[in-house]
Specification:
Helix content is 49%, strand content 14%. It is built from 19 helices and 13 strands.
């Protein structure tokens, strides 16, 4: 379906959700999120009835607002009885140094999250003799990637914003964690409504609740949303790497080393100095990334395959220009797939050999144990279960902090079965074989990184 058809479907879903909740559909505003969306598609959406456009980044919005004004003069009618204009809302994080531009462009700023930011927006609005409409953003999750004022500090912020002469406080906004099941988000939406009701009882006028996106807006409406922010369901998914690079604060480069140069050439014009770039390509150095990009906020990461089951081992090397907050966001992303440590970059090739290639080496050993079990008369299934569970249990014991040598001694009795087996390993030079294998992997990592 096209944009117009998508909007028809979405509006009907909004209407149905409102009716189910015993609400008037007219009380719910649709904000079309235009992050990474081309100007022609925005105009098509406006012609189809959209009256509010939401942007995440001030810089991206500058060109869109400017060019929209050039292309649409006057703006086409918006829906039945529309006034002929559109509103622009800022729905992404706002830095204080961009407050002036934001006040110039946006009818409503939805992401006020500190007294400092509110004061600067008020200051800039005063210079323009403007009553800047704002929402206060509330943080309801523990995710480092989510912004907003805490519940504990919210009342103080509401009080301060209410005192500011050039700000018009209209409500609250939140961005909950993402869940595949929309019902899992309901407690966050319900809590924002409860917070609004508690604040209203204290005398604050907060008619607007901005919550709910493409995946969960119907649940949000059921919990009282008056504004829903919908992008993907209207415009579809982002089509290019350039669009992603331009729209995101953190860009993760998950390409093969031989593809890195082409990828950087494509996105480098869209990587500004304030963006963070994370590379997980083997052998690609921080100095190489620095030579290709404007930003110096660079992180090199070596994860490994067990990340697929949230048991990964990731090692970070990073430039010195990072704040603790910048690092914590990336660290939290990586911790969602396992453990994380930080090491100087000079160790990264060794890390690649031990933990990057390590799962294959351990799998080879388990494979060899399984094959040996079959040779000894076990079925393949039984041998596999024995070998895999033994590897898992051994890892769990080592995870307690027990030294491998201690565990080996616990299992080994003088003259027993384990001692007999270990004697063969020692005679065949198992430790030397492992060392040679890891050295070969490390050397190959160095070769891949030459010139990069």
């Amino acid at each position: 379906m096209g944009i117009s058809e998508n909007l028809t479907v979405i509006q009907q879903r909004i209407n149905d959700s409102a009716v189910r909740a015993g609400r008037d559909p007219k009380d719910i505003k649709l904000i079309a999120v235009t992050k990474t969306v081309e100007l022609q598609e925005i105009i098509e959406a406006v012609k189809a009835g959209v009256s509010i456009l939401g942007e995440n980044r001030v810089q991206e919005a500058k060109e869109k607002v400017k060019n929209y004004e050039l292309r649409v003069t006057p703006a086409p009618p918006i829906g039945k009885g529309g006034s002929g204009g559109v509103e622009w809302h800022l729905i992404g994080h706002l830095q204080t140094n961009k407050a002036k531009a934001a006040v110039q462009m946006f009818d409503l700023i939805q992401t006020i999250d500190s007294v400092e930011l509110a004061a600067e927006v008020n200051n800039q609005a005063g210079k323009m003799n403007k009553a800047q409409r704002v929402l206060v953003q509330i943080k309801l999750s523990e995710e480092a990637t989510k912004r907003g004022v805490s519940e504990k500090d919210m009342t103080e912020l509401l009080e301060e914003v209410s005192k500011m002469q050039h700000l018009k406080l209209e409500g609250l906004m939140t961005i909950p964690p993402y869940f595949d099941d929309p019902e899992s988000v309901r407690p966050y939406f319900r809590r924002l409504r409860e917070i609004r009701d508690e604040a209203s009882a204290k005398g604050f006028s907060l008619p607007e609740l901005s919550m709910g996106m493409s995946n969960d807006f119907e649940v949000a409406i059921g919990e009282g949303a008056t504004m829903v922010r919908i992008g993907t369901a209207i415009f579809g998914t982002t089509a290019s790497n350039k669009e992603v690079a331009g729209a995101c604060d953190i860009i993760i480069l998950a390409v093969k080393p031989q593809q890195m140069e082409a990828a950087l050439d494509e996105i480098s014009p869209d990587i500004s100095e304030d963006k963070t770039v994370v590379s997980i390509a083997a052998g690609i150095t921080l100095s190489y990334l620095s030579s290709k990009l404007k930003t110096k906020k660079l992180i090199r990461v070596m994860p490994n395959t067990p990340a697929l089951v949230q048991e990964g081992m990731s090692v970070m090397s990073l430039c010195e220009c990072f704040s603790d907050k910048d690092i914590s966001v990336v660290r939290e992303i990586l911790m969602s797939i396992g453990k994380v440590i930080t090491l100087p970059e000079k160790y990264m090739d060794a890390v690649t050999a031990v933990s990057g290639s390590g799962p294959a080496f351990i799998a080879l050993f388990v494979e060899a144990m399984t094959g040996a079990g079959v040779r000894l008369g076990l079925s393949e299934d039984d041998a596999s279960v024995l070998a895999v569970q033994t590897a898992i249990g051994t890892a769990r014991l080592l995870e307690t902090g027990m030294p491998p040598s201690k565990l080996r001694e616990m299992v080994t009795s003088p003259g027993g079965t384990t001692a007999a087996g270990l004697k063969v390993f020692n005679e065949k030079g198992l430790k030397d074989i492992v060392l040679n294998a890891l050295e070969a992997a490390k050397n190959r990592a160095e070769e891949l990184g030459k010139g990069r």
